[in-house]
Specification:
Order of helices and strands: EHEEHHHHHEHEHEHEEHEHEHEHEHEHH
Strand content: 5-15%
InterPro entries: Glyco_trans_4-like_N
Strand order of the largest sheet: 3-2-1-4-5-6-7
Organism: Arenimonas terrae
CATH topology of the largest domain: Rossmann fold
GO molecular function: glycosyltransferase activity
Number of domains: 2
Number of helices: 16
Radius of gyration: 23 Å
Protein name: Glycosyltransferase subfamily 4-like N-terminal domain-containing protein
Shape: globular
């Protein structure tokens, strides 16, 4: 079948939604489907290592709007300069350094810098603090003043653009969508949310008579939706439930919410969780130069931090327990984590923003993978599904033992739950340290059928079965 995916986030962007559709597109193409992708021409960030998209997939890039276009142009010029510098010859030899640490000197401000400091305020001060404490760019992107200013402009645009500044691509996306619907008419159009503006493009395709599958990460009206957009988000969610032929969701709880709010029949709802790549195999150079100590219990957390995803209790437990080291790979480290890494480098190690493939390889070498629960007990973090493929036990930290993640781990036997309490966590870590010393650290047991439903290959097969209308 011919599939047209509309996705704002798609490689080279390394977001969770981009990874989701990179894997699903790859698998659909390998099944023999003709896949087209409509996506903005935006610059990626981070260290790369994203899933390789088959050559048969046609990605149609469109102008992302004035602000995103300007940032992309700047990024492309910067990449071209870096490529030119690399081709000019090898750099002088330097002393080896920690691979996860980039040395950055403390900036000396001239008068323009002082003005910038006064205008940008707290974000700039936070970055200076991290550099002063750790001597490196702790925040993956390492924004300079231009980057900080751009972020502020995007936040301002998001005050009047729904759902946020990414809506600026809509005029160009709609024009290109109409061309594709004429030139390569698809059997089915799929929209990837977030952001929510892709939903309006799906509605446009539906109004022209095309089958439409709406893929939702979370409900459009979510707890984090800004108050100014809640009514509009709720209305868009209602119209989506009325018009989409299939609504795919990442959790049963999301399906229940849509059914309760808008009467969405469960028969039109497809459960497509996040997943792991059953095809992954680390190349020799992807094992990397990040070493784990066989004499210590090596914990690993790979992912982002939010106000609802806190690490305080685990930090206290790690610092109170001998023989444990917490390793964290993230784009933006919380202040308390930065401080702990500076004050206790033997207990807490920041690895920076790793490429996707390096993160997967590192997960498979750790002793225990850490998962931090969201505040909403019905949500299962997408990172948890990625962990499932590592074959390493998972320590899930939550305020309640009855959340959806704890139930999933109990069903699959790949991890344990511990309450979000420093004392209880310290006792759990001490037991794991002793278990490792005695050679009885539990392995993640993956019985037949227990985890196969959560690999991207199975999820893509489930999606493929719904591309065409049911007989």
């Amino acid at each position: 079948m011919r599939v047209l995916l509309i996705a704002y986030d798609f490689p080279p962007v390394p977001s969770p939604q981009s990874l989701r559709w990179a894997y699903l597109v790859r698998e659909l193409a390998l099944m023999g489907h003709e896949v087209h992708v409509l996506a903005p021409d935006v610059a990626g960030y981070g260290a790369g290592g994203l899933p390789e998209i088959p050559g048969s997939v046609q990605v149609h890039r469109v102008y992302p709007g004035p602000m995103a276009g300007l940032l992309t142009s700047r990024a492309q010029r910067r990449q071209a300069r870096c490529a030119g510098a690399e081709s000019s010859g090898p750099a002088p030899a330097q002393a080896p350094a920690d691979p996860a640490v980039e040395s950055v000197p403390e900036p000396v401000l001239n008068w323009k810098g002082k003005v910038r400091h006064a205008v940008l305020g707290a974000p700039y001060q936070a970055i200076r603090l991290a550099r002063r404490l750790l001597g490196f760019r702790a925040f993956g992107r390492g924004l300079n003043w231009k980057g900080e200013l751009a972020e502020r402009i995007k936040r301002f645009m998001s005050l009047w653009m729904f759902p946020d500044s990414r809506a600026e691509w809509m005029p160009w996306a709609r024009r290109r969508l109409d061309q594709l619907l004429e030139q390569v008419p698809p059997d089915v159009v799929i929209t990837s949310h977030e952001p929510a503006n892709s939903i309006e493009l799906g509605m446009h395709a539906k109004s022209r008579g095309f089958r439409w599958i709406a893929d939702l990460g979370d409900p459009v009206l979510a707890p984090y939706t800004p108050e100014r957009w809640r009514r509009r988000a709720g209305d868009l969610e209602r119209r989506l439930c009325e018009q989409a032929d299939i609504v795919s969701v990442t959790s049963r709880a999301a399906a229940d919410i849509l059914h309760a709010r808008h009467g969405l029949p469960l028969g039109r709802c497809l459960l497509l969780t996040q997943g792991f790549d059953a095809r992954f195999s680390a190349a020799p150079d992807e094992h990397g130069d990040i070493c784990f100590d066989p004499q210590r219990l090596e914990l690993l957390y790979t992912g982002s931090f939010y106000s609802f995803r806190r690490i305080d209790a685990l930090l206290h437990a790690v610092l109170a327990t001998e023989g444990v080291r917490l390793n964290v790979a993230t784009i933006v480290a919380p202040a308390e984590l930065v401080r702990a890494a500076h004050e206790h480098p033997e207990r807490v190690r920041l690895l920076g923003f790793l490429s996707h493939r390096r993160a997967l390889a590192l997960q498979r070498r750790s002793d225990v993978l850490v998962n931090l629960a969201n505040d909403d007990p019905v949500q299962v973090p997408g990172k948890l599904y990625e962990y499932l493929g590592a074959g390493v036990p998972i320590l899930h930290i939550s305020a309640t033992a009855d959340d959806a993640t704890a139930r999933l781990l109990a069903e699959t036997g790949v991890g344990v739950f511990e309450t979000d309490d420093p004392g209880a966590l310290s006792a759990r870590l001490a037991a794991l340290v002793q278990a490792k010393r005695e050679g009885r650290l539990p392995c993640a047991q993956r019985g037949p059928g227990q985890l196969s439903d959560y690999c991207w290959q199975s999820l893509a097969a489930r999606l493929s079965a719904h591309l065409a209308p049911a007989d």
